[in-house]
Write a structure and sequence with these properties.
Elements (H helix, E strand, L loop, with lengths): L59 H8 L3 H31 L1
Length: 102
């Protein structure tokens, strides 16, 4: 997996099964490459990707355990994250609008 600036975030070889996750620090297009070194005739391969971004990428269970919160407090924490994401998006759009007006 490479970042938009070409930094390698993950590299593995000879992996047949597993999971991998990362938290992005930069916005942009991330690339992932998969290859089969010695393909066997008639064999099949599959890769399942679950790319999550924004609030969907947050591990709320870990946050709840770490901060020792549950129930309503956890839901309020999720809502606070949603409000922050909306606010950040609003500021981004406002900046883009100002750039386009120039």
């Amino acid at each position: 997996v490479n970042s938009p600036y070409g930094d390698s975030l993950h590299h593995s070889e000879n992996v047949w099964l597993g999971q991998f996750g990362f938290t992005s620090k930069e916005s942009g297009t991330y690339t992932a490459c998969f290859w089969i070194t010695n393909p066997q005739e008639g064999a099949t391969s599959s890769v399942d990707l679950d790319w999550k971004v924004g609030l969907a990428a947050k591990d709320w269970e870990t946050i709840a355990r770490k901060d020792k919160i549950e129930g309503v407090e956890l839901e309020l924490t999720k809502l606070e994250g949603a409000v922050e994401a909306i606010h950040d998006n609003f500021l981004y759009l406002k900046d883009r609008e100002a750039e386009m007006r120039e």
